[in-house]
Amino acid sequence: MSEWPAKRMEELCEITSSKRIFAADYVSEGVPFYRGKEITEKYKGNLDVSTELFITEEKFTEIERKFGAPRQGDLLLTSVGTLGSPYVVKPGEQFYFKDGNLTWFRQFKELDSLFLYYWLVSPQGKSELQKSTIGSSQSAFTIVLLKGMEIELPPLPAQRRIAGILSAYDELIENSRRRIRLLEAIARTLYREWFVHFRFPGYEKLPRITSALGDIPEGWGVRKLADVADVNSAQIKPHTAPDELHYIDISSVSPGQIDTITTYAFADAPGRARRIVQHGDVLWSCVRPNRRSHAEVMHPEPNTIASTGFAVLTARRVPFTFLYCATTTDDFVAYLTNNATGAAYPAVTATTFGKADLLVPTAPLLKKFGEATIPMAEQIHMLHLQVRNLRRTRDLLLPRLFTRHTKYKQ
Questions:
Q1: If both were cysteines, with which of 92, 134, 157, 293 could 410 make a disulfide (CB 3.0 to 4.6 Å apart)?
Q2: How many helices (H) and strands (E) does the chain have?
Q3: Nearest-CA neighbor of 274 among 227, 323, 311, 322?
Q4: Nearest CA to 194 among 325, 333, 330, 327?
Q5: Mean pLDDT over the full length of the chain
Q6: Per-residue buried b or exposed e for 71-92, using 16+ beta carbons within 10 Å of the residue's own CB
Q7: What is the pTM of this model?
Q8: Is the Cβ–Cβ distance between 209 and 218 less than 8 Å?
Q9: How many CA atoms lie within 13 A of 141 on its CB side?
Q10: pLDDT at 410 > cutoff 60
Q11: Which residues neighbour 19 within 8 Å (Cβ) at sequence distance 6 or greater?
Q12: Is 56 strand, coil or helix?
């Protein structure tokens, strides 16, 4: 097989940006207006992108008619701040984007945009992107340098074959993420029905009584979190520390999941690697609780340790799924946010968690909730493992598929 020819990106597509949108054009609802933040979320696979800015349908139509707008198959690349997150526009999507934050690749010639997407996240593509970077305090890509990037380009059929192999993994990942989202929604809906709206099995037969949290079903009680769970129950000591540990840092936890766990020799581990975690624990970042950096720990490897920046909640008298749902509601987040101290880095303490009021139902109802939701948590855990394995396999394939001596069916 002959070597793939190297071509400059400007030969293969138009590379441009958007027309400037001013602050006066923003509205509270309408056509989404994306910055690098939203595209990075899409690149990471977030199903719900936290869009904060919009423009009117009329403004969008005017821009689209005069200058064009992103359409199916176009590619956007984050070019300031978080660099190098690509996104290929899907069918039916309608949005506009911020100039300077994102670079727009469109009108492709002899280049498949999905092939370009995977090339940009491959070692080969990342190396070329590095050459297109300027700035030291705040790095950025320039359109001029991006146009000069060189890509070793196989024929279109081979490009589509490569993109098809890799996108098959991403489709499986997305399907698993959707199943995770559905199971999480079912568990939360059940929690709200039973413990917020009080429509639990047999609710019609129970009278209400007065409590500190308002009228509640008879037999239920308002308890401090410390009465039903331990907070930071265990931590490693230097003289009993393992040779190796698996560390969960605050930055590696996003709302509802642990993104990464890093393995260290104990001697090389960060000084904050102290909190021992076990199956069923709830991790809550003590810093900036409004960001909702929390997760449920499922079947951790031995010697899994969390940062002292977390509160580690261990259920004792309630199912761990009940504790997780109860401590991740909007009301609980508001309680933490209102009790945080510090201007630059508002934070709460273990005591703040322990003093929180929880509405605790009867033991039989707690048992029923656990029986319904713990299998869901186990299935969610298995799906997360599946996603991790699919990503690992895809990422191992990336450099091999972009090696010009590899043969493909065309």
A1: 157
A2: 11, 25
A3: 311
A4: 325
A5: 93
A6: eebbbbbbbbeebbbbbbbeee
A7: 0.86
A8: yes
A9: 30
A10: no
A11: 63, 66, 67, 99
A12: coil
Indicate if the pLDDT at residue 358 is higher than 80.
yes
pLDDT at 405 over 90: no
* CA geometry: angle 274, 278, 280, nearest 5 deg: 130
The tokens of 192 are what? 């709200």
Rg of the chain over all Cα atoms, to the nearest angstrom: 25
Alpha helices in 210-296 (DSSP H): 225-228
Task: Specify whether the backbone of 68 is left (phi greater than 0), alpha (psi in -120 to 50) or beta.
Answer: left
Instruction: Identify the burial level of 326 via C-beta atoms within 10 angstroms of its C-beta, where 0-12 means exposed, 13-18 middle and 19 or more buried.
Output: buried
pLDDT band at 1 (very low <50, low <70, confident <90, very high): very low
| Cβ atoms 362, 82 nearer than 8 A | no
User: What are the CA-CA distances from residue 311 to residues 149, 195, 274, 352 (Å)?
Assistant: 47, 24, 11, 10
Q: Are 390 and 172 in contact (CB under 8 A)?
A: yes
Q: Which two tokens stand for residue 166?
A: 């890799």
pLDDT higher than 70, residue 406: no
CA distance 178 to 63: 34
| Cα dihedral sign, 335-338-339-342 | positive
Full set of structural domains in the chain with CATH: 6-153 (3.90.220.20), 155-196+364-410 (1.10.287), 221-360 (3.90.220.20)
pLDDT one-digit tens code per residue, 13-39: 999 999 999 999 999 999 999 999 999
Please give the Cα distance from 43 to 59 (Å, whole number): 26
Residue 216 to residues 205, 206, 226, 388, Cα–Cα distance (Å): 13, 10, 21, 42
Q: Is 254 exposed, middle or buried (0-12, 13-18, 19+ CB in 10 A)?
A: middle
Q: To which H or E segment does residue 185 belong?
A: helix 156-195
Q: What is the DSSP string of 112-157?
A: -HHHHHHHHHSHHHHHHHHHTEE-SSS-EE-HHHHHT-EEE---HH
Residue 350: pLDDT band (50, 70, 90) is very high
Q: Model confidence over 106-134: pLDDT tens digits? A: 999 999 999 999 999 999 999 999 998 88
Mean pLDDT, range 43-49, rounded to an integer: 79
